# Entry
Amino acid sequence: MSEQTIPSEGTSGDYAGRYDRALLPVFGTPQRVLARGEGVHVWDTEGTRYLDLLAGIAVNALGHAHPALLSAITKQAETLGHVSNFFASAPQIELAEKLLELAQAPQGSGVFFANSGSEANEAAFKIARRTGRPRILALTSSFHGRTMGALALTSKEAYRAPFEPLPGGVEFLDAGDEQALAAALAPGDVAAVFAEPIQGEAGVRPLSAEYLRALRRLTREHGTLLILDEVQTGVGRTGHWFAHQAIEDLQPDVMTLAKGLGGGFPIGAVISFGPQVHELLQPGQHGTTFGGNPLASAAGLAVLGTILEDDLLGHVRSVGAQLTREILALEHPLIEGVRGAGLLLGIALRAPIAKQLAAAALAAGFIVNAPDESTLRLAPPLIITDQQLATFTAALPGLLDAVSASDAATAASIPKGEH
Ligand SMILES: *Cc1c(COP(=O)(O)O)cnc(C)c1O
# Structure
């Protein structure tokens, strides 16, 4: 058979067209079709290799095809893959115990397993409702997910508007405004405040330690739950098990997790701290078919175990700090600064060129993303080395220059009056 008539297997063929014909258009057409991954690299169907500096959006904590994760999932699948929640399994119980230990949760705390970040936040939302108080506070620029309850907590109008009415009772406060927080909590009718320690989707924007402390103090004063969404920041991403642990005595009442927890295997979790929160969801008031099944739990245990054994928390702090120093040392006129912690970093740009920059980086073999117009987000696998990160830092000035030059050219080529 001639090679011209049949696209050889493993090439992109007409994947873009087939994608458009077979999938709902919610994501737009992806720029590449990926075929495999190993360590911190992925390859597309054309055989091009990329340094994965996004890790499936802070998911592939151990990179791709990590032997510990592979063997845990394989062994568990060979043994017992799924049982309903009519039954327990050892991996589920062990993972819950491990999470409670790492979160330094007091006696009487508990875990509910879900399958995603949105689902974890849905469960937290239901916990908040069960306090019997009518109001819930979330912050401007928040992102808590796309399901209806999680969306009700998400501030971005473009995400919300097409789906109204959303579950009610949610109000948004300016992130960082302590006075507004105090005023909103004062009537004593607020069930919970939802907050991300670092607002990842908003462009890697950390809440200040001062504001986080105020959140804890004021919610405690008014009997309001502090619910920290650590879906993106948790599980070692910031160089701590959970981002809030960077600040002393900042234990939340509820914490939600997902993304990195399964290292790529879907799993989410809600941790309730202490006996009072524990009692809010009574038997029969919440549930899931898949949540916490043996396979997902085994994946979670492998991720946590590897982070522990390989001291990845220390590693993340060290390579994250080194990367930040190197990016700042470029002293590039288009780089304003670096936000974030550990290996959740946002390179703040002085021009709205982040989307073009991410595209140029991809063409140069680096996967990054642009959560907003002027931020480039890096969230690589936690196992990445200084040397691997340095290849990106070395390429960055050239990418910035190329993008700003073509941007200027485009701007110049647009006739005045047609903007
Ligand atoms: C990604 C994310 C979510 C949503 O998680 P999904 O698994 O996509 O449902 C919620 N909160 C935060 C902070 C996130 O980064």
